[in-house]
Write a structure and sequence with these properties.
alpha/beta; Aspartate Aminotransferase, domain 1; Aspartate Aminotransferase, domain 2; 2 domains; seven-stranded mixed β-sheet; 41% helix
Length: 405
């Protein structure tokens, strides 16, 4: 197994001091740090292969196209898609979900249809469906979350009916880390004929994903939460559905031919990739996939499980700290409050100690409302973290309590 020191050494940003203290980065649910191999892949593209893809016959264009399409194949292999062309490059999970909402759902939905989501969704898996409901007259239904932050499967099952056309759910909650039983949820959804969409932004950097085994119809990914660059992500979709869908955006490369009388669309996935894409981002994402495979999901998940258990024990030992939504199935998130201290104040004080955590509603206001909160502190773990990082967080929280408690 690769040592903790060896893993952290792969991430240049971790080798710095904040407030005179060595950086302890516990905000990976917002974005993961980038290993050197990803940074090098992006830099090498711009240094040696900078050219547009698909259209050029010159050497640089051919090399850029190969790197871009190789990355597509790497993603397809990582998530278990049946073919590379089931993977569409987008800016991130947000754009992926919006693409499904507008290119698939909007033409399908009519008044009386229902879209089912859950209380734990990120805003990016709420707002696109609200928009499409306003456009079509469909209704949005919401399955409940239990007190421990896990999915209320009775609520989910009860809301499924013959009017349910789309079911969209987080694989992992960004705010509290709950891992949903997405395979079971997709099976239940398909019994009523619903199309299934999974927001996988928080899952793919922490646990293995098998698109075919889950048997969902669409799976959304954000590259920057899986050690890749920002501004790049993917939508994995079943090929037959993608083939039936009309393009969401028009422009270059998504067409086979254009005249003033008629335009003929390109094949899947290119008809959904209008304009010059984030070529460097895609190549960097391919490098992130290689990094994940080098480390191995077994190492990632086992290490994060140990850190999560340790972190829960340490935080619960601090008087005044309360964990929020601490379900047993969790992908490395410690959500908590500190009695009589606003989360933003906690975040500011721990930052002065060199510890980076996230505070606020985490783009999950309905979930905060569910727990009767306006905000929480969130320490989110990744493979580069250690128990020492948790100890630094605990010491910084103690300082916040001493100053403000």
């Amino acid at each position: 197994m690769i040592s903790d020191a060896s893993i952290s050494d792969m991430f240049p940003a971790l080798d710095q001091k904040i407030g005179g203290q060595k950086l302890v980065y516990l905000d990976s649910a917002a974005t993961t740090q980038k290993p050197k191999c990803v940074i090098d892949a992006v830099t090498d593209y711009y240094k040696h292969d900078n050219a547009n893809i698909h259209r050029g016959v010159h050497t640089l264009s051919q090399r850029a196209t190969k790197g871009y399409e190789n990355a597509r194949g790497q993603i397809a292999n990582l998530v278990g898609a049946s073919r590379a062309h089931e993977v569409i490059f987008v800016r991130g999970a947000t754009e992926a979900i919006n693409l499904v909402a507008q290119a698939y759902a909007r033409p399908q939905l009519v008044e009386g249809d229902e879209i089912l989501i859950t209380e734990m969704e990120h805003h990016s898996n709420i707002v696109p469906w609200q928009i499409v409901c306003e456009q079509t007259g469909a209704s949005l239904r919401v399955a409940k979350v239990l007190d421990d932050g896990s999915m209320d499967m009775d609520s989910f099952t009860d809301l499924l009916c013959e009017d349910t056309v789309i079911v969209s759910m987080a694989h992992v909650s960004n705010a509290i880390g709950t891992i949903n039983p997405v395979k079971e949820m997709c099976t239940l959804a398909k019994k009523v004929g619903a199309v299934t969409v999974i927001d996988g932004a928080q899952a793919i950097g922490h646990l293995p994903v098998d698109f075919s085994d889950i048997d969902c119809d669409f799976y959304a990914i954000s590259g920057h939460k899986m050690f890749g660059p920002t501004g790049i992500g993917c939508l994995a979709g079943k090929y037959d559905l993608l083939k039936e869908m009309e393009p969401w955006q028009g422009g270059g490369d998504m067409i086979l031919s254009v005249s003033f009388e008629e335009t003929i669309w390109n094949e899947v996935p290119f008809k959904f990739e209008a304009g010059t894409p984030n070529i460097a981002g895609a190549i960097g994402l391919g490098a992130a996939v290689s990094f994940i495979k080098e480390i191995g999901y077994e190492t990632i998940t086992s290490k994060e499980d140990v850190l999560l258990e340790y972190g829960r024990t340490v935080l619960q030992s601090i008087e005044g700290v309360t964990l929020v939504g601490a379900s047993m199935n969790n992908a490395g998130i410690l959500a908590f409050t500190v009695k009589n201290i606003h989360p933003h104040d906690v975040g500011t004080i721990v930052d002065n100690a060199g510890v980076a955590i996230r505070t606020g509603n985490h783009c999950a206001q309905p979930l905060m409302d569910r727990f009767g909160l306006t905000a929480t502190c969130r320490a989110s773990l990744s493979v580069y973290n250690t128990t020492d990082d948790i100890d630094c967080l605990a010491k910084a929280i103690d300082q916040a309590i001493t100053i403000l408690g």
